[in-house]
Amino acid sequence: AVAHLAAGRAGADLLAALRMLPGGPVTDLPVALAVASGQVTLSADAFPSLLESYVDALPYEARIVARDQAKVTLAAHPSHRRAVHTPARIALDEALHDALAALARQTYVPASDASRLGGAGAGLTDND
Asked: Which of 10, 23, 61, 85 could be stapled to 77 by a disulfide with Cβ–Cβ 3.0 to 4.6 Å?
């Protein structure tokens, strides 16, 4: 989200993709890019600007080398690490902020005995 918005790409694309959860490009693109190496062809989705944002956020060299209506070709080099710049601040419109806050609330586990008995928390060390 940060890379997308910091690059000046449409917040509406990100909001539409978030509304597709638990499926869609928010979950599919990171999986596809995690295994990308060399020249890789991915299906073009309804949100090509999100693919650009994910590529920008990768910690290794990657770039889009070709694009058409059906597919995007990516040159990925996982062994060539690079620093990723993230801005200190970005501006969110209210709808996108609300969608991200709702997603964050879904990850929240209350600090209670019941949740700890259910497996939440670090246990005895932070490595559990």
From this structure: 61
